[in-house]
User: Fold this.
Amino acid sequence: MVDLADAARRVLDAIRPHIGEGKVATYIPALGNVDPHQFGFAVAGIDGTVHGAGDQDVRFSLQSVSKVFTLALALSRGDEAIWRRVHREPSGTAFNSLFQLEFEHGIPRNPLINAGAIVVTDQLLAETGDALGLLRDLLRAETGNPDLDVDRVIAASESETGHRNRALAHLMASFGNMRNPVEQTLDHYFRQCSITVSVTELARAGLLLARHGLQADGSRLLSPQDARRVVSIMLTCGAYDAAGEFAYRIGLPCKSGVGGGILAIVPDRCAVAAWGPGLDAQGNSVTATLALGTFGSITGWSIF
Amino acid sequence: MVDLADAARRVLDAIRPHIGEGKVATYIPALGNVDPHQFGFAVAGIDGTVHGAGDQDVRFSLQSVSKVFTLALALSRGDEAIWRRVHREPSGTAFNSLFQLEFEHGIPRNPLINAGAIVVTDQLLAETGDALGLLRDLLRAETGNPDLDVDRVIAASESETGHRNRALAHLMASFGNMRNPVEQTLDHYFRQCSITVSVTELARAGLLLARHGLQADGSRLLSPQDARRVVSIMLTCGAYDAAGEFAYRIGLPCKSGVGGGILAIVPDRCAVAAWGPGLDAQGNSVTATLALGTFGSITGWSIF
Amino acid sequence: MVDLADAARRVLDAIRPHIGEGKVATYIPALGNVDPHQFGFAVAGIDGTVHGAGDQDVRFSLQSVSKVFTLALALSRGDEAIWRRVHREPSGTAFNSLFQLEFEHGIPRNPLINAGAIVVTDQLLAETGDALGLLRDLLRAETGNPDLDVDRVIAASESETGHRNRALAHLMASFGNMRNPVEQTLDHYFRQCSITVSVTELARAGLLLARHGLQADGSRLLSPQDARRVVSIMLTCGAYDAAGEFAYRIGLPCKSGVGGGILAIVPDRCAVAAWGPGLDAQGNSVTATLALGTFGSITGWSIF
Amino acid sequence: MVDLADAARRVLDAIRPHIGEGKVATYIPALGNVDPHQFGFAVAGIDGTVHGAGDQDVRFSLQSVSKVFTLALALSRGDEAIWRRVHREPSGTAFNSLFQLEFEHGIPRNPLINAGAIVVTDQLLAETGDALGLLRDLLRAETGNPDLDVDRVIAASESETGHRNRALAHLMASFGNMRNPVEQTLDHYFRQCSITVSVTELARAGLLLARHGLQADGSRLLSPQDARRVVSIMLTCGAYDAAGEFAYRIGLPCKSGVGGGILAIVPDRCAVAAWGPGLDAQGNSVTATLALGTFGSITGWSIF
Assistant:
């Protein structure tokens, strides 16, 4: 039997010497102000108990980790149509950008890269009228934090500097793969990325996937097949240009964000969240990556 | 001695059986309403005399032919800096798009493709505050038509459907190669493309380049070197994906537009404009291409 | 406790209705002669016991599955230099070809695509003088079949039709990333791919990786880190253009070949081999893919 | 009336201060031994009189200039089929390589880049059995030098280092666009490039195109349309990655080679050859480029 509280403590001990390593993201100016000497870790057991360590209650910017939950919401509508608008294969380093999107006629490679997540948000917005609202409601319910919300300063900063995301969205629009006006979809997209959570909250929300689609209140959001779909995409596409390296170091399905957070799922067992603001050259948190690798080894739950 | 009036008549005779051939552009909805059974031809001798034939006074949408004059205006400021923002080599069929722009770090291949012309407009706008106004003034002066103006319906239609141009501009912005807000530059760009002229007016305006940079009033707009630069770019980059075929058929420096107009320059001799709304598969006017090839043969001024 | 003998039987039962599905590979003519109505399955427990089902002793062409063992041999030399000659990230659908290799200066994306495996063979050949011999010896030892060998007809057929592999190798040579003459390396490469094995033999050989680098005779071939490296590359890069779909369907580190075989590894537990000649559109065996997915579900060893 | 003898003298005077500029090509080792302090210039009037200057009788390696004559030979067979195997548009800087060829299914962009010239040689070889022999015979007849031949040392050096050409040829073969064994075609191709000529000889041979397809003995090799085709391809595709810059500097249809030679055609008037071993960054001879630009200005025969 794995003792998760003990595992959390051991992870923190292992990471402590590395706290502060890496470089805080600056491409969104508002993200650059975070104190790099922070580290939080939390594991939520399948029964809902959360064991945290370090800065477990400090909130950070979800950024791309939000893509996992937006995808879950889109799939929860039982709508297979999304798979005509986005593929589900890795994108390949350095070609994850406009190039591939153009050659593949405006269909992004997977829902966890920016272009793909924009399409998923666009679909959710077209179907429901409020992509941000749905995500916020889901995360409030699953994290147990009714005040969870968007950081408006970061959202504004994202929007201001989001030229590449605008290029992606307009390119998709030119191929007929946008259903709402580009700026409207991007407004939801930028705000989704700017939601703040703590690792405690994020681990708790991740149980949605560890439980194969069941929400905290016991109701079903996703079919088991769709939950497996989300987790399998995390496994092969969750770390941008470093999917291979990530698999080697961690051996679990993960999604990272430039806010420094990473969410990992161990189906039937737990959801794990780690956070440290300092990033490596690929944009993944140095300490969170280390923490999840350590957790996989300690528990024996890594695929290796 | 070449008799230009006679040449114009002979060109019309040769083209008559082909009038109506090709497909009117529809990608900008407002362009699709033009009657395809029209054809205009005009040659302006170096002395300023214009000899026209057919629908020589019907106005059509300049579209990409405008890029030649915007480039001339940007160069007229004696500012070499523009060449740090745009290259001057052919783009290669089918790779003239976002792909090449991304791999070349947001520096477009030449000023006569869309991305390049957007950069030139952006430069002119940043330096002068009114890129459209300058172009309109120049064309009014050189065509001799003080009422020359933008077709607002077409400009609005261009803007509405301009997703690919927006993708290009935002991609350049993401590389730091835009000086004004994207929508502001595009507003000038779309309106420049939507200026209407007749072949008579266009041929007259083309004399600016046939005279190596001298304007109709005898003042110098461009240095001879810069005029040669513009004309040489027309020669190798004036026909999008069909530069080779164009060179073969015409053998003169040209610039075509999807409005069906083509401008050709014979330095020291004349400027020639032809117009027919029906386009071939590469987007070049069928009758205007034929007309300029015929003109080159009749006069012996083709390079071949 | 999982009963592997029972699992093998249940897999066969589940697959039986699908035997014969898919299309036998024909791009190498000699591969096209295989009877499609065959299916073999075998699982080798960590203790070395093998449980087979169906055509468990029929031999087939290893093809790309051989790449896993060639990589293991190259790494066994403790030589990190190979990682200067090949990356270890997924390649991205449809761009796994010369294109990516050219843009990345002749450094292939990973050792399990053709270009990467050619580099690994080239390295092994340069270091030892006999890449094929080493692989054959390793597989003879690990499969327990002293007569295991190359199918010369298939090897000749591969060589004859191997234009794309030659293009890859010469492109790498032009970037200085080949140490032996191209034809010499390719000769070893083609023959490695043409080795024949049964699923019983392949499962047994796969234990090398399930045991983190220990050979059948108890000696260490690979460090645990290098064994983990090989397995992690299988997880993200083992299925060409269908890595994402493979992860979803199977949830285990795998490597497939166009001969219809697939090898999967469950570290510390077992190695599994499945074979059926009929391939799906991505070149992966229909029945072998199904079989491994079924095995993952039955045993609960899939990552999901 | 232009005095060609005088023009040749004036060109030499203008170039003299620049002799020795540029870097001798070294990518083919045997080319690197040439003394850079040489310069030759010759113009052959339409009547056959040749006026030379400088090192007008020193022989150099034709290299890519040979592509013009191989193309003429292929077209001389009245065989339009070659245009199903090669396009005739510019290739675009930096994308002239395997990348474009792969995306365009093994059909090279034009006959004056390496891939295209290999296809033309392959076609000629398949149709006649001796591509090299035909080219040598043609050049012997047109240059008036019955001893004109291949430099075997250079041919061997080309073959030895020709990995990229092999990659191109095998890639085309993989698309079914090679009719002979790759090595056989390349053997002819490498030897064609290794033919040596003087500028006097090259200018004389160029009259074939200036006379719209008539050979020195008055017989017709090419139809006027095909001659125009060759010359138009020179205009847009004759200078690899510097077509635009070349057009600007020279304004005449040209073909350059890394041996330092350039051939230019002025239809109905003359053929011009210049040679200097020092190359600029794009691989075009510094002094030969300057010389042809000067010649165009002096004579007024530049298109500008």
